[in-house]
Amino acid sequence: MNSIFELFKIGVGPSSSHTVGPMIAAFRFGKECIEKSQVATGADVSIARVEVQLYGSLALTGVGHATDNAIVVGLAGCLPDRTSPEVIQTTVDAARKTGRLLLNGQREIQFDESNDLVWLRNETLPQHPNAIQFKAFRDSGECFLEDQYFSTGGGFVYSREEFDRNFAKSPSAPVVGDSVPYPFRNAKELLQMCRVAHASIESLIQANELTRRSELEIASQLDLLWSVMSNCIDRGCVSSGILPGSLKVPRRAPGIFSKLSRQIGSFELNSSQDMLPSKLLGESKPGALTQSDPLAQLDWVSLFALAVNEENAAGGRVVTAPTNGAAGIIPAVLAYYVYFYPGANRQGIHRFLKTAGAIGLLYKRNASLSAAEMGCQGEVGVACSMAAGGLAACMGGSNEQIENAAEIGMEHNLGLTCDPIAGLVQVPCIERNTMGAAKAINAARLAVLYGDGHHFVSLDRVIETMRQTGVDMQLKYKETSLGGLAVNFVDC
Ligand code: SF4
Known about the structure:
Structural class: alpha+beta
Largest sheet: 5 strands, mixed
Number of strands: 9
Strand content: 5-15%
Number of domains: 2
Helix content: 40-55%
Shape: globular
Strand order of the largest sheet: 5-2-6-7-8
Radius of gyration: 22 Å
Bound molecules: iron/sulfur cluster
Number of helices: 21
């Protein structure tokens, strides 16, 4: 992986590995079908149907994670960053009603979900627990094209050939490609490169990104990420109702937002447009929010995380940061910086995202972002670590203090299991993001305000510990809904 912009993707809920990844895989297979059919014949040939087999974790929790919808719309030519949640729903509804879809938006084929989408709950492929097998058939019944894809977490997808090539890489492969000025492999090298260059982590990431895009493009992309995050918080705070799925979980963010807003009684609210966190808090003075309760800021942070994760659970637009299940932590901590931190500005938002991105790249390279491999420590734990590092940078922390903050953020999430009830990204996921955000702020404050960068466990060691813990973790705690809260929530 080369760029922080591969880590922060704009997508849709509820899951990066089970929704965003499968949608991209289905899109790629559908596109390849169309291209190969034209190359093979020089003219259109018939592709009668596509069969999709879901393995392992994808099969076990795919219904709750909307993997079925993702496959349908991906085959129909939709991509998560370019398709609105409304179009996704319309496309799925039409395919279900007619039993047909437009492959890659071009060729009508049969897609009868009861036959063509196969859930292999007791089978896994050796490469990865999130595997998909696609087969396209001609009218004659002959298999025209087949491939396997692996959704490895955070919306990353590899075909069989890409997987073999990427994951057979040499242990010395850098986190970012050799073609950049700072091809670091781990936190130790990152810090050493910063020392030699007398530069911040943010500056090194900026230098690496400049090999791929202009300064203006980097800034615009970072602005876009914050804007999607901020809009998601706004939407989540005013969207009430029940979340999709069998649990009938009520949304909590609007009620909390309403209570917290009332504490800011001195503000003039001119229209309903003003009743959004971005408007309300954007114009407030940080001190005004804590006059009656010194911990009110913490309540706002919890609200931000709840708002994003409720939007995610409802299939809304979110930034995968670095996964969807943990999509609320970085926006919540960044919103804490924006709304409550004295002197917060656009440059600080960029610094936060670049620093958090650098830390995320280390986890992606040296462990995994997949809950099917690492449990929830690979989602909520990594997001907490990234957010802690990002906030530490905005607080003026040194590179060593940033590394310390990121390390603390993970150290106290080690062993966190993934056990979503009913396979839905709702309980414990939504509330867990509030805890991750609070821990991240605590970690940044410990490292920057009360530490000097020296500490016992390095970030590299804690990343390796997370990886080993993930390997040792029983399968039932790795996004299968076969253990933990997923089987113990009913009070008999
Ligand atoms: S428990 Fe954690 S890892 Fe599992 S689905 Fe929920 S947020 Fe994701």
